[in-house]
Amino acid sequence: MKKNKPDYTTMVKNVLEFSDGTKEILYYDDPPHEYWYNHTKIPSASNVVKFLTPSNVIGNWTAKMSADKFKELVEAGKSYDELQINDFYDQIKGAAKKNMTQAGQIGSEVHDAFEKYILGGEEPEFTNQQMAKSFATFKNWYLQQQGLEIVKTESFILSRKHLYTGKFDALFRNGKGEHIIYDWKTSSGIRDSHICQCYGYAMALEEQFDIKVSQGVIVNSTREGKLNIKTFEIGQEQHEVFLACLKLTNFKPETKGRQNVI
Predict the structure, then answer these.
(1) Tens digit of pLDDT for each residue in 173-211?
(2) Are the C-beta atoms of residues 172 and 179 closer than 8 Å to each other?
(3) Number of Cβ within a 10 Å radius of residue 42
(4) What is the four-CA torsion angle of 153, 158, 164, 170, rounded to 10 degrees?
């Protein structure tokens, strides 16, 4: 967490209601994708858990994106001048970032389509094949679901007690009256960070709306049209796991005096 004097005039203002009748203001600054509450910058649930993704996974993926771009650009037996080599260098260097940006755009578009379909049955007319495959897979899964009642979708949550925020995809209630948090993913698979993120959502929902969430479901509808589902319980132990991640996120080591340089 960080305290200074933010310029709220450039931020998106969100008024959040609590079950006790009070309201809080949450500001969102995009870019740099920061949240501010009560003059304090607070982390999002997704940022709290991002370090759970092993660094080798990110490194291997970055290397693959760069290698794929090299293979796309360079032809065996062909010579290149200095300008072409410099251009190749720039493209290979930026391949991972470009791919990540495109994946984020696809994820955002498809998430919006998921919500519109759930709430009103509206189906998108995607020309992008990755978007179309992801949505079609999600639709086929959703049509098979029974006994679920929509409670909330795409809503901001705020923990005043633990100082973090987030935006969950959907909250449903089943026939037994149990609340289940759902999270839509379009990535290549389900990671531990995705699950732990839902732990944080569940905690904040209970604090903000007095809604006890006992279960979470990750629906991973990939850009290649594959479906992965992960269902898991959420209780006190899971809450403590998220709080441990939050504590690490907020940890700032104290540095006093001169440091030894090795």
Answers:
(1) 999 999 999 999 999 899 999 999 999 999 999 999 999
(2) yes
(3) 23
(4) -10
Rounded Cα distance between 10 and 29, Å, is: 7
Task: Tell me the residue type at 45.
Answer: A
The two structure tokens encoding residue 18: 């609590």
DSSP 177-216: S-EEEEEEE-SSS--HHHHHHHHHHHHHHHHHH---EEEE
Query: Of the candidates 200, 166, 165, 171, which has an alpha carbon nearest to the alpha carbon of residue 183?
Result: 171
Which segments of the chain belong to CATH 3.40.1350.10? 43-250
- 159 sits in which H/E element: strand 149-159
The residues facing 150 across adjacent strands are 172
Cβ within 8 Å of residue 69, ≥6 positions away: 91, 92, 95
Q: Which of helix, strand or coil describes residue 148?
A: coil
CATH of domain 43-250: 3.40.1350.10
Q: What is the DSSP string of 39-107?
A: TEEE-BHHHHHGGGS-HHHHHHHHHHHHHHHHHHH--TT----HHHHHHHHHHHHTHHHHHHHHHHHHH
Q: Looking up tokens 């080591």, which residue turns up?
A: 253
Residue range 10-36, pLDDT digits in tens: 999 999 999 999 999 999 998 888 999
Beta carbons within 8 Å of 213's beta carbon, 6+ residues apart? 171, 179, 180, 181, 201, 202, 205, 206, 234
Query: What is the pTM assigned to this prediction?
Result: 0.86
| Residue given tokens 């839509």 in the structure block | 184
Cα end-to-end distance, the chain, whole Å: 30
**Whether 103 contacts 224, CB under 8 Å:** no
